[in-house]
């Protein structure tokens, strides 16, 4: 029987919580070894997991220690390009969330992260996304040995939304080969995100931004993604275990922490610049959408990205800001339309 760890409650409960499990796994029923054989969201592997990136040895069911029985181990590539990223997804999350009990509008996730080799500059953890946007997540940064949040935020100035990496949510560091119990909540009605790291809970606040409301998740992602700024140069071996995602009817609030939006400007490259008709995008993470903002802060256009290209033919000549949302964060780039 797997031993489950309980989070301490450095928090103030606002209501009685009735939990409804959306997705959960502890991997104990899996077979040791390879999870699957297809790595482009093709045929599912063990447990119905769809894998993206890498090869069979990069996704393993392993025995790390007796307390955890079997766990899901993920190994990234040793570089800083898209092919070095890893992702695992199951189907059915969106349907289960849509069928949740009325009033259970808070998404609550808990899971354990094994810091493993703690090499390179890689982010390992989980997030919740839908077809067009990332919503919330939490990842371990192997370079800083700290956890980084993920949050969908709305700019107070422009009302533009984006999925951002959030630093400053905890000062604690965690060395190699350490299990850490963490979690996050997203209240879609009230626009509240909390993070829990090793029993310490905080409520997110970002100057100049509010948390985007009314987003519904369609998939829970186990991710291990490389950084390009600074560029990753080593493979990371980490693991996930004992995860549970629930729909509940009240968030448990903690101490308010003012986080910082991480600078990931090097993660996206645009060309040509200046541009006349098409801007090409290159990114280490999947590109979800792009917005063009003029220098007054007005959103000129916003759309999904097709073939990693943005059409600027209808823009007037001048300077603009291109805001690109990826699975790992949001990046802004200045460009000139000729």
Automatic annotation (TrEMBL):
Transmembrane spans: none
Keywords carried by this UniProt record: Signal
Domain (Secretion system C-terminal sorting) ranges: 270-335
Key word Signal present: yes
Signal peptide as annotated in the record: 1-19
Pfam families named in the record: Por_Secre_tail
InterPro entries given in the database record: Secre_tail (IPR026444)
NCBIfam families: Por_Secre_tail
Name of the molecule in the record: T9SS type A sorting domain-containing protein
Organism: Chryseobacterium suipulveris
Phylogenetic lineage: Bacteria, Pseudomonadati, Bacteroidota, Flavobacteriia, Flavobacteriales
